[in-house]
Amino acid sequence: MPRSRDRRLARLAARHVAAETEIDHWRATLEARLALCAVLRDMLAELGIDPARVRMLQVCDKAEAELAAGPPAAPVHPETAPTSEFEQQVETLARRYRANPEIDFSHASLISVFAWCVARLGADAPQFLTAATPLQKQR
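-> structure tokens emitted (139 positions)
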């Protein structure tokens, strides 16, 4: 086979692998979002708050529909996908909500509502993250 054809095939193969990796990342992100939403709904229920008040939980319905429509993701090993950045963000926001518990559920992001719940329940983020292992697939 001529070298130029080999190079073209190699480039096409590399694009195909990159596309598969991107799809797997996208699916893992959707799965993480669903896991966060499930934990968040439980936390809100424990606090006696109607999850319908949290507008961002609507993204969970969209994520679920997108996951159902696409191919299954490649397996991701939770121990190899770090959550420390997410945990740090939650802890930072939770400290803020412990000092000032005001939140607007209609405009708050999922991570903000999650941190608010963590602050109100007097817990730490890792406790809830272990209950939702798909969150660790986020990266």
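The two ends are 39 Å apart (CA to CA).
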